[in-house]
Amino acid sequence: MTATIAAQVRTPARVVTATARVLLGLVFTVFGLNGFLLFMPGDASGMPEGALKFSIALFETGYMNPLVSGIQVLVGVLLLANRFVPLALTLLAPIVVGIFAFHVFLAPSGLLIASAVAAGEIYLAWAHRDAFRPMLQARSPR
Question: Has residue 128 been placed in a domain?
């Protein structure tokens, strides 16, 4: 098989990777857009006190929510378009760590979804590990 034909073969691993990429892309596109358009209702009444204080502090900075929402939209679109996926995953990593830590320490009720998002990020990073190999070298080759 030539490289072009081999790339078109749908193996289970390719299907799982594409599905994870599209799902993660949808999640971050929708939630990123919600950061600007506020189309999903937010109910802060059931939020633990620490989580509420943290969320208010981020909002009051005036720049953190638009910055994170903008990165989420950008990353979501890149993942959906299957373009610059390793770059998108790199930009997304600190956001996913923040989401996961928020739910571990401040709002455990959302830990299942945060874990699924983290698992998707880790899986996709593993699927694209060859792109990250040069970045993870102890010494620069130059």
Answer: yes
Helix residue spans in the chain (DSSP H): 3-8, 12-37, 49-60, 64-81, 85-105, 111-127, 129-132
Cβ of 52: how many Cβ atoms within 10 Å?
A: 15
The one-digit pLDDT tens for each residue of the chain (142 residues) are: 555 555 568 899 999 999 999 999 999 999 999 999 999 987 777 899 999 999 999 999 999 999 999 999 999 999 999 999 999 999 999 999 999 999 999 999 999 999 999 999 999 999 999 999 998 888 887 7
Domain tally, the chain: 1
Report residue 111: phi and psi, to 5°.
-65, -30
State the residue range of the domain holding 99: 12-38+46-136
Burial class (CB in 10 A: 0-12, 13-18, 19+), 139: exposed
Q: What is the pTM of this model?
A: 0.89
Tell me the C-alpha to C-alpha distance, in Å, between residue 18 and each of 10, 23, 114, 120.
10, 9, 20, 11
Q: What residue type is 96 in one-letter code? A: V
